Amino acid sequence: MNKTITIDGNAIPFEDGQTIMEAATAAGVYIPHLCHHPEYTPHGSCKLCTVRVNGRVCSACTFPAAEGQDVLNNTKDLNDDRKLITQMLFVEGNHFCPSCEKTGNCQLQAVAYYLNMLDDHFPHFYAHREMDASHHEVMIDHNRCIFCTLCVRASQQKDGKDVFAISGRGINKHLIVNAQSGLLKDTDLEASDQAAHICPTGAILIKRTGYTVPIGERIYDHKQIDEVALAEESRPLSKEIDHG
Amino acid sequence: MQEILTDCGAEDVLGLQIGGPSGTFISNQEFDRKLAFEDLATGGSFIVFNNSRNILDIAHNFTHFFAHESCGFCTPCRVGTSLLKKQLDKIVEGHGSAGDVVALEELCQLIKTHSHCGLGQTAANPVLTTLERYPELYQSQLKLISYEPGFDLDAALETARRMANRDDAGAHLAQIDVE
Amino acid sequence: MAKIRIATTSLAGCFGCHMSFLDLDERLVALADLVEFDRSPITDIEHCTNCDIGLIEGGVCNSENVHTLREFRKNCKILVAVGACAINGGLPAMRNFIPLEECLSEAYLDGLGVENPQIPSDPELPLLLDKVRPIHEVVKIDYFLPGCPPSADVFWAFLTDLLEGREPSLSYELVHYD
Fold first, then answer.
1. Of C70, C73, C130, the CB nearest to B159
2. What is the mean pLDDT of residues B85-112?
3. Into how many domains does chain B fold?
4. Closest to A118 (Cβ–Cβ): which among C93, C94, C144?
């Protein structure tokens, strides 16, 4: 007999070793997330996937599924808090969607749409962040980095390199690259690396590829992120870069 | 608590911070409470404040400390502790208005509930434990208007004023809308 | 029944939100039966009287914007932030990362092609704030309509909800930040 947990009252089967996120995704249940990607070691830092497990607050992407778990996911309270956490990300960085190549294909934006976020709620930091356009094929716009570390993980775990890291702490935390000069051009990053395509926001972009898809045909123009994420993440792990 | 205070000769006590900045602030009405896991837990830290101290200054100082101490791993603590610092600054500096204490508490609960580790989960305690005991202290900081900006409007004109070499009435802004 | 009075203005914006509002096209005729316009670029009325709804496009970049915003807040029962700039400062706020001193010097003192360099100092001119701010950081805002610009359908959904006494809500297709 299959082992199950319940999510919002529905029985969800799981296998030993699966996280709540993995069990939910396999069963077609969307739990909002930004730093989670099924192909990489979970990180549990964005806190968008916060669920209540038997009353306790947990990150679904890191918490192992186990018999007897009664999980709350799609509730008004949790989604209200997820919206506030998303608003924190929007005021922390400088997310000017109309001027960003990633708009329409951005997961940060799409999660905000999914949560019906209409404003930024908090005062803006307007933090001064740099751009690194030194690399001939790939650019970093630090204004849009949300510190999900997917590029860090992708570079280490998929590309067999060590191009990215997070440095500093607290509100001054920032993405760095592995070069004496601190410039992307002096790393061994190539445009074909998974790390160059994994960014959920517009922080890491491939040059000369922006605005090729017309408005109305972009990933999240008509489909919500729950539908897109489940379609991409519930299928067997891919070996290819699937979007960028 | 009273026993410890008597033993160490503490007089004129305003309140105690038990368990360090992330612990609990208790008022001088609660000295019958006990040091215990079931009541006031502490690894040993025990701070005594006398009546010359200002409760809001204490909460303000600890809140700045936590914003500085946050490692930045998770969103609620990384961004939240800095937002909490801003929001408390706004109130303590006298720019708060209706709704700002409610917003302060909302932020505290969000950081407490969703932070990854103990630092974030307790970073709002200085505000929460003092707000619970002295709500009127926080409320009395607020102006009786519906809204005031959290930044200094007139100071925001300083650079432009200096460069245009102006100091006429039109070169200044009142912080709140005067009739 | 008295018509609902609406005032509109553009602060540090591009009037794109107003243009999008005009995209209501023939629905403007239906709207005109229910509402009348007070202060607005549409009417050329210069100051607000008592209004039911104020629609604000653009962020706050100078002292005049602050005065205008306060006049709207004082006179409008419901104040609405319309568009990306009103909500987060938008593209004008991208100057926030360049010190104002540098902006003014580049434009009026030592930039390319500047003749007779001087910082404009006529008291008639509003002074620039050091940073462009979203309007909710200056006055209290009741509703937010995101978009750059919000589509005509957003204005229509929002206004018809309000006029018919419903709590305004925007469906997925109507929420966008670009």
1. C130
2. 95
3. 2
4. C144
